[in-house]
Structure formats: C-alpha cells, structure tokens
Known about the structure:
The chain has 398 residues and is α/β, with parallel strands linked by helices. The protein contains 16 helices and 12 strands.
Amino acid sequence: MMNAKKWSCCFVALIVACLMVIMSLNYFVDPYGYFESQSGEAYGLDYYDYLRGQKAEHIKHFSDDYDAYLVCGSKGSAVRPSKLKELDGYDYYNCWVLSGSFNDYVAYVKYICENTDAKKIMLQISTSELFEFNREDYGTIYELPAEVTGESKALETLSFLMKNPKTAVEELTEDKVVRPNKKTGERDLQYYYDFQKSKLTNGEYFNYMFEGSYVYYKFFHKQLRDIEENKEASLDSLREIKAICEEHGVELQVYFASMFAAQMIQYENEVFYDFMEEVVMLFGDTWCFNTYNDVALCPYNFYNPAHFYYEVGDLMVDTMAGKECPFEGFGELLTRKNIGTVIEERRKSYQEWKKYYEENYYPAYDYNGVHYEAHNTLPLKGFNSEANLTKNHVLGKQ
Length: 398
C-alpha cells in the first residue's frame, strides 16, 4: 500500500507534468505570437495576436533602420511609411496598435524617445481614443509589453507560458485568415482589396458597408455616453507626449485621421469640439482629415466602417505635404486663429447631414439571405464616383 510520502511525490509529479504540458503547449503553439515576436520580426502576426509586444520588439531590434515613427491606433495601419517619407525624407516605422489609446501612445513615445535615435514622432488621433482612455482591461493582446513599461520581462514570459491552454488548443483546431503586417509596420491590405473585388456584384460591398455602418446613425438622436473624463485624461496624455518629445529633442507632428462618414456621427459632439480646440491650442497648426467631404462619404474607400485603405492614407500625406487636393473639404489646417470658425462650420455641416439623413432612406434589400428593411442614410457615393480612390487598385489597373 502506497504511503503518504509516495502519494505526495506522485501528486507533485502530476502537478509538474501538467504545468510542463501547459507551458510546452503555450510555447510551441504560441497562440499570441509572443515567443515568435521576440526576434522583432514575426510580420505574419495579425490583429488578434500580441502586436503591442511585436511592435516593441521590432523597435528594439531594428531602430537603426528608422528616423521617425508613426504612433497610432488601427486606423493608422494603412498609412504607408514609404509615403510618409515624402513629407520630410525620414525613414518611418508604423507603430500602430489595435484599439490604440492615449495610454498606449504615451508609453510608446516614451520608449521610442529613450531607446532610439528618433528624429520625429508622427501622432495620429483617430477620435475613438476618447471613448476609452485605457484598453488594458480588454484582454491580453491589449496589455502594454514589459519591453515598453520596464517591468519584469521574466514575469511577462512566465505569464505567457502559463496562459489558459484552451487558447492554444483553439489555435491548433480552428482555421483562421491571417492578415499580416509588412516589415515597416503597416498592415498588408491585399486581403481587403480582394474581398472588395469579390463583393462588387449587385452592390454587395456597398451593402456590407451600409449595414455595418448603420449602428452609428443612432447618435444623430442620442449623445455618446459621457466622455468628459476621458477627454481630460487624453489631453493630459498629449501634454505628456509633448513634454517627452521636447525633453529628447524629437520633432512632434499631430494630426486627426480621416474617418468614414457614418462613424463620424458617433463622435460629432461638443466634447469632441472642445477636445479639438484644446489640441490646437496645445500644438498649434494641426491637420484635420476627420472632415465633411466626399471621400468620407464613399464606402469603397474603407475596408470596414472603421478603417480606410492605403489611398486615403496617401491622400492625407499628399495634403500635408502641400499638394493640391482634388476633393473640397478633405483636410483642414487648424490654427489657433481659425479653430473657432472651423468648429462653427462643422456644426452647420453636421446639421446638413442630419437633415439629409432624416429626409432620405435606402430601400429594403436582401443580403446574404437576410432581408433588411428600408432605413435612413447619408448621401453615400457609389463605386464609380470620382471620390472612390480605390477603384483602379480593386480593378487591377495600377
């Protein structure tokens, strides 16, 4: 009969064996891409992987390749570093992170300024940062990496070894589409261009964007929940970013990114106007592409209701570089002198869109076997509109 000592030894051995299985599964399957990204490469990781860690490791290993960094959320993932180089001749790295927050931006700007020879930081504001100041409670892939925070790398590694093995098992058993990043950090959008091309028949892509954007129209009738507290925290973060860059002699350029017209409605309120004015007072001349224009009204310029294609990013850079923009209202240079007038004009434009929305509707239609009733809409542009920047790319003409 087994005595107590043997039972204890067997129990400990069983526990150790279980831990070894869990750790081996997490290490070799690497469901978050954490271990693969330690080399600073791992460009095949997607948005559901631990990109915050991969970005930090890439900067750590390859900072000698870059003079400047774009810090932003996922809206900026389609801004090409090769295009940004036309602004100032710098070699850029696109350090976008999924659901980026000002909490993330402070951490990455501080890390870049303290650990690289960066000459410039481009900071893109997507407006959605006002909705959540800090995203770390969303889950593992939203946590800031130890490489950036300066916390224990050993404890971080151990935490990834001890993750719930269910995630690793799901990684082994479920098929997934990988939408990777390029070496210079921007997202590879070919999957999305191909998707748009496959959905052009019978207006399927228009319907896909139309239905996906309808959720935002409710904000014509009710305000986004109170974000005043987030606004103040966000402004504090921007002041900290400015101070960090000044301390290290790094140039800082801030701009507001382009946004699909439907999503703009979610944030078009007095809190955002106050925030915009404070940003301009803090930084001076600031480009704003979150504006009322035909590019924003064309769903084909966006690969989902929250993200634009390369062509929109290219047009933003061209406009900032001083090239003539063919679309009225795409991009406004906000200054301390004109910000009050610009905001008043935005209020008027918003009311014009709201009036159109209330007076016009899209007819009922069937999509993917589902019947959708008629509902109101903005004056969205079609595939053949001059405002469709992606048409030639999708049709393979460039």
